[in-house]
Amino acid sequence: FKGGDTCEYLLSSGRFLGEKVWQPHSCMMHKYKNSEAKNCLIDKHVVFIGDSRIRQLFYSFIKLINPQVKEEGIKHGNIPFEDKSASIKVDFLWYPEVNGSMRQRIKSWAEGSVAKPHIIVVGAATWSIKIHNGSNEALAQYKINITSIAPLLEKLAISSDVYWVLQDPVYEDMLSESRKMITNEKIDAYNEAAVRILNSSSRNSKAKVKVFSVSKLIAQETIMKSADGLHLPESSRDTNAMILMNVYCNKIMKPIDGSCCQPQPPLTLIQKIAFCFFTLSIFGYLIISLIHRNNYRKNKSCTDLESGEEKKPAVSTPNVSTLEMLLHCFCKLGLIMTYFYLCDRANLFMKENKFYTHSSFFIPIVYILVLGVFYTENTKETKVLNREQTDEWKGWMQLVILIYHISGASTFLPVYMHIRVLVAAYLFQTGYGHFSYFWIKGDFGVYRVCQVLFRLNFLVVVLCIVMDRPYQFYYFVPLVTVWFMIIYATLAVWPQIVQKKANGSCLWHFGLLLKLICLLTCIYFLSYSQGAFEKIFSFWPLSKCFELNGNVYEWWFRWKLDRYVVFHGMLFAFIYLALQKHQIISEGKGDPLFSNRVSNVLLFISIVSFLTYSIWASSCKNKTECNELHPSVSVVQILAFILIRNIPGYVRSVYSSFFAWFGKISLELFICQYHIWLAADTKGILVLIPGYPMFNVLVSTFIFVCVAHEISQITNDLAQIVVPKDNSTLLKRLLCIAGFFSGLHFFSAMQDQPRH
């Protein structure tokens, strides 16, 4: 990798993904909306100088500001454009030849008292070839004229952005007779002259005229679609205009999915403190390790030289202390977080845009399904949704979601709707799992709550600090955290109804159902009262956790999208455990869940329901309308899958160890993908090995999975230290954690002051 100047790559190199999506080399290009373009160019003056090809680029550029503009200007004359709402002026100046007139205009900006434009886009040559019939004398004069203009352009480049647009190739077979002398050989000669003169002139200059050569590459792929062989098709010139917008605006607007031309963000105060902490942890662990190793060598058994017998050490090898384990975890975590930062905050590795094709999504899906079926083993128990089965379910869902993200399949609505069901299924398991635990165990202690909250949130809190992102950015963790607390509050509030108590009287079952009905009523009310929801989560300190871009709308949208599915999971757990208690279902090895007749009927209904939902999701035409129905109907496919997976005894008795392994680290995989597998906060793809897409995915995936597994181990180890079972020790740790978050809030307020 040559370095961090992605602007140079954006202006000079790239390739097409499919027919219309342009991928710059090494960086990501943002697709600007007209509102964003206006915000970037507010109070700016942009000038396009040149021939009819530059006029095309001018029109494509102003359509980014105002899509309603029509190409009705004078063909061989100046064309003004102004957006008064944002005080933007964009002018096209008709100078089809590089001559004295063009020089005089540029000189008036460079040396005169006239206000200089903020952006100047210049380019011309085909008229010189056409008028002078492609003569060598015209080329020689072109070189003289550019040589005289180059110093003036460099002078302008000190205070303005100046771009010289190289001439695009032509499609010679389609050229009219009057343009037959414009050959690609002549165009290459003119381009070569322009580049050589501009580059040699800029060596002695402080500022540099940027050569816009990427349009040549775009034209080479698309010029055959030209209407006359000379002018580019609309899609190609729109791409050129978008590149221009990215070159100028990315450093101003800083879009997440526009890494081209963006400088590396400066380290925040909290990031610097985190860096110091991890550095001290690494040195601390190394020092303690050296001391322990030294003590071990001293106490190591040695050979008695006189008797030739081995002596045993007087002191046994000491156990690893809590401090050493703590430092060891933070040492590893520090190295991993350094990798996270280098991948997605430093301009060290390349990033590319996603591009969806059916094959890029469905072929990997088939591949992992074959692998999953290959690694089939018997389960330790044959209960419905046993531990191996839920791990397997989480695992294959997580792998499908990962493939969905890296392939950019969110643009394909049927796939999007099915992935929504997978996210809902995760939340269904949250409701099912936590309800089952509290109902059976009756353990509402602080230790259990702290263990769950720590395991869910540890990695996200560290990433918020290291990657300088808000908590709500990792939306799934806040979602499962809040739902866990809702489940806990529902069951822990008086009267506490658990299975042991309910076995004594059926009335307790009705009491629990009343609690669930109250919960459903609250969910329904909040889902249709955005104002009430936003008021609840806008209070400090909740607002600090759930705000994104200054409001809690994103959090409300995410919560509303799967608002009923956790309740469905709790209700399913209640019904299943009641059926199990009364021995209505059979969970023996190889036995169907119900009698043969009932099992066959339920299996048929489940398969039909599963397929019906898939047909409905695949026929969706409007995402907004389908999202409105999703919370109510997603449970159909989830329940259908559970019954299909558990009614046949043989199917319930086996599981895929391949999927189950991934299921155990599914949360870490979901969070880590944001920064070390995908890039630009999931908007693009991380490129460790440029030029070899498949090999790059293999290498980055291997590292990504290993890191996720290691973080899972670190989280489990730290959970034992940070959340002890002893209540008095736990209380002290909670006070320390409260102090930590208070300090974090204080430093966050300090670093926010300069930003405001």
From TrEMBL:
UniProt GO MF annotations: N-acetylneuraminate 9-O-acetyltransferase activity
Membrane topology, as annotated: Multi-pass membrane protein
Segments passing through the bilayer: 273-291, 325-343, 355-375, 395-416, 446-466, 473-495, 507-526, 561-579, 599-617, 659-680, 692-711, 731-750
Entry superkingdom: Eukaryota
Location within or outside the cell: Golgi apparatus membrane
Broad class of where this protein is predominantly found: Golgi
Domain NXPE C-terminal: 22-72
Assigned GO CC terms: Golgi membrane
Catalytic activities: a ganglioside GD3 (d18:1(4E)) + acetyl-CoA = a ganglioside Ac-O-7-GD3(d18:1(4E)) + CoA; CMP-N-acetyl-beta-neuraminate + acetyl-CoA = CMP-N-acetyl-7-O-acetyl-beta-neuraminate + CoA; CMP-N-acetyl-beta-neuraminate + acetyl-CoA = CMP-N-acetyl-9-O-acetyl-beta-neuraminate + CoA
Keyword terms: Acyltransferase, Glycoprotein, Golgi apparatus, Membrane, Transferase, Transmembrane, Transmembrane helix
Name of the protein in question: N-acetylneuraminate (7)9-O-acetyltransferase
Pfam families the record matches: Cas1_AcylT (PF07779), NXPE4_C (PF24536)
Residues annotated as domain Cas1p 10 TM acyl transferase: 253-734
GO biological process: carbohydrate metabolic process
Key word ATP-binding present: no
Family to which the UniProt record says this protein belongs: Belongs to the PC-esterase family. CASD1 subfamily.
The EC number(s) this enzyme carries: 2.3.1.45
Gene: Casd1
InterPro entries: Cas1_AcylTrans_dom (IPR012419), NXPE4_C (IPR057106)
